[in-house]
Amino acid sequence: MIRSYAALLCISLCLFAIPSVHAADWLFPFPINYLDSMVGEVDAFSDGKTVSKVHTVQLHTLIGSALTSEISNKLSLYKETFIPVETLKEWGVLLTFSSSEMEITLSFIQDVRKEQALTFNTPYSPPIYSKSAFFTNINNLNFGVSDTRGVETQSDEQSWNIEWNSTGNFAGARGVNYKFSGYFDGGTDEEQNFYRGDISAFIDRADVPYRLTFGDQVNTTSGHLPSQQFGGFGFERNYSALQPNRSIQVGGTQALILEESADIDLYINGSYITEFRLPPGRYRLDDLPLSSGSNDVRLEIEYQSGRTDSILYSVFYNSKLLKEGISDFGVYFGAPSEIEDSRYEYDTGSLISTAYYDYGLTDYLTLGLNGFYHKDGLILGGLSTFGTPLGNIGFRLSGSQSSEYDETGYIASLDYAASLWDQNNYSAPNLRIALESYDSFSYQPWTEEGSTGHSAAVSYTFGITDNIYLSLSYNLDKESGYDTEWSAEASTSWSYSNVIIGLGVTHEEDPNEGTSNTEGVISVDWTWSSDDGQYFADLGYASDTEVLRANFSKPSKNQVGKYGYALSADVESDQGQYQLRGDYVSNRVRYDGDITYYNATESEDSVVTSFRPSTAFTISDGTLSWSRPIYGAAGVVQVHDTLESEVLINSDDDDNAEAISSNGLNNAISLSTAHTSQSFTVYAPDAPIGYDIGNYFYNVTPGAYTSHIFTVGSDASKTVIGRLSLGDGKPLSLTQGYLVSSTGDSTPFFTNKGGRFVVEGIRSGDYKIQTMDSDITGQIHIPESEDNLIRLPEIQLTQGANNE
């Protein structure tokens, strides 16, 4: 990108150094931006205020594919090397020049731009990784202290905790990645306790793709296979991690494993239920406060370090429909693991192995095989998914065999998803049907007896208008030896402005528990956000949970010096929770704290006060950086010794920065998406006049946990202004050439009509002047100086074949 100081000086010299050339245009390369993104560079003639002509071939290369065939052909057949901006305007291609930013903005009249289909199905290109440190160690540290005090008795209890999450890499993106964690906690009435989390190492090959993992992990499931936590090795495709931008039309499941403390908002079928905080650990869905018959469960997770995540659990199986020729697989082997009293226990006497393989035979047919083996039982199965104009149909068939219980069983499942009579859901499935029949089947035949029965689940949501929705659902479960259980729900919601009102009725029949209940449900939700997007509020009530909630918040931005806060209340008939929460983003530490008041009719009211700072240290070979927590890979920014200025990373127009690096202490930012190109900017607001910091825009393609070091500034930081003349005193006008150092390094220059030139990013020393006309040569000396902007005396060149 060329927003360079040199280009600005060159144009300024052309305009002001010689009054007679005010109306002249000079040729320079300029960046072209479209929709706030740089699409490339073109050579253009400019007088410093406007652009008159641009390079025809360069422009067509950049934008030809976005034009209609008629306009694209006109541009490609244009005979002149440079095409006037006015001609492009007549064709509907608008180029606007910014003299302050030294860039060209591209826009179109609608009729000349080709209709674009929004799609993620772009051809996949293997990553070209950026240079990284050989050894990386990223250490995220979370600290927490809390005080719980009884309001009446004034009893108090303190607790504290330290969470250490470490990730790293050996030998770059194609080397070995690792992660491990450790936790230390204690309190007034608790013993100090140290325990570890999952430990694993893995190797990625994103271009194949595959990931080979050793250590603690969870297998990816397919068909009717169970999810198992184990210690061992896994070999899998893992498209979502290795090729995150590639569309393969595939879904999957995700286990809830918290590597650090987190606040969790729970939603069931789109309705808010409650908020709670969990420490690091493994959690089963059964551990969460869910009600029976929940079709969709969404967990919105905010980790202490500031990272967020969203996890969706559904009763409906997500059938995979892979593109033609795409395969997805996983092979796993190891010892089942459990955590008992904060210690990992591996059942080495009962090793497991599991595998699955799915293949897209065509774009409309996917077939797969899967299996799970344990010494006391096994599961074998297959699946098929058909894509039809009426929706996706998935069929799964599996058998289980148990030597522990001496039984053999089977299960058959039919899954259907379609978008039916709904123009408001943008082709997302709004009708889902799941039918299942099983006979003596067990999902874990080595520990559980099989069961016999059948089940059905149906869910349909219909957008009557843009503001009115109708939802219907039905669930049935009949297991041998028990009476049939079923439930049904019908609801409608109406939205107007910021208000959503829901009305519904549910009926549940469970003869086994003696339950027969019909209940009407009403819910009211109001949401608000300020025009500038800084403040949010919501108020809601649902009769089925009998929870009234209110919230007002100002979220913090991921910028130094920003802060956020929230006031919330969850009120039920017999208890309530009221919270004031705040967070502050400093340059190297994120602070988070809250005061929560609990009241209940059957216990003493209490107040819990918590304070939680988080920070990170990254070691990249021999380079240390201190920053806020890092997710994924790290971009380490260090400031060169010659630059006496702070460096702002990813700053905006008001100099609000994501992070600030200084000469004495490096900082780092997260490169959170591995194996894909990402970018960031640097800016030195207090750099001396004429100091060239080098690149200010960086593209980087990281591995999973690699680190990449970027140095802002260098010894070659001087900007030089001079004038070249020939032996007869005439200026060397409108000439391109090079300054060649004694080591052979060359720096290009360009003279204006008066022979003036500007060169930036150059060291002190002696240089040979070589012009495009090799018959003209000379010497230049750039003196040692503390000044970075150096004006040289007039330099006289020699002309002739024998002059060096």
TrEMBL record:
Signal as UniProt keyword: yes
Domain of life of the source: Bacteria
Signal peptide: 1-23
Record's keyword terms, sorted: Signal
GO MF entry, a single one: fimbrial usher porin activity
Any one GO biological process: pilus assembly
Protein's recorded name: Pilus assembly protein PapC
Biological source species: Vibrio splendidus
